[in-house]
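User: Please run a holo structure prediction.
Assistant: Happy to. Please share the sequence and the ligand.
User: Here you go; the ligand is guanosine-5'-triphosphate.
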Amino acid sequence: MDENPNFKRILLKLSGEALKGDASFGISNSIIDEIAEEIKEIQNLGIEIALVTGGGNFFRGVRAKELGIGRASADYMGMLATIINGIALQDVLEKKGVKTRLISALEIKEIAEPFIRRRVIRHLEKGRVVIFTSGTGNPFFSTDTAAALRAIEVKADILLKATMVEGVYSHDPKKVKKAVKFDHLSYSDILSKELKVIDHTAVTLCKENKLPIKIFFLTKKGNIIKAIKNNDIGTLID
Ligand code: GTP
């Protein structure tokens, strides 16, 4: 097992959909609690943590057409969903004694601080878990892209995308039995293969800024720590 002890600062993108667990909607109490527990453990290892929340457990901007809503409006609805998840995570983390700062790309100052790059870097240096919400604050950009952008802005060592799948597969594992999981891919592999597991804008940003990405399954106990400590989980893209 390869050890990866050198991460000083990580950015963890939490899929909104994974937060709902077995429910069809909303936040699973046990899942958010387990995630918070793991984040606390990671912090105890001396690693600085920034989180980016997705919002798919409440609303997905890509459903715009189906609902007869314009894409921009739907994306704003999705951004509000990421704020709901951020508030919940902040509360659960702070109940466990983890200091946090909630940041929003959209101005919602009664709830969250605005994004000021140098200020959030100071929060991280002081050991606070920084929770980024509202994506990039712009419609037409995904929360994956927000995660890549924020990771680069705060100079994180890796972007960890914790999601509903174990990694990147050759085929859709739900449809194709012989689908194989890749342990390691290049940015160009993802871009050329039209693999949909992470959006291309995010991958392009990471490629240009040489930020490695790891994609792994969120809702298995201990997986976030494993994704940080060793290389035998998920798919590494660099
Ligand atoms: P330091 O100056 O590094 O000590 O940072 P700090 O975050 O502790 O200081 P500050 O006095 O700015 O913040 C105190 C509390 O207010 C923290 O919980 C912040 O998250 C919160 N806070 C700061 N600015 C805002 C804001 O614009 N909106 C909201 N809702 N909370 C804020």
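The mean pLDDT is 93.
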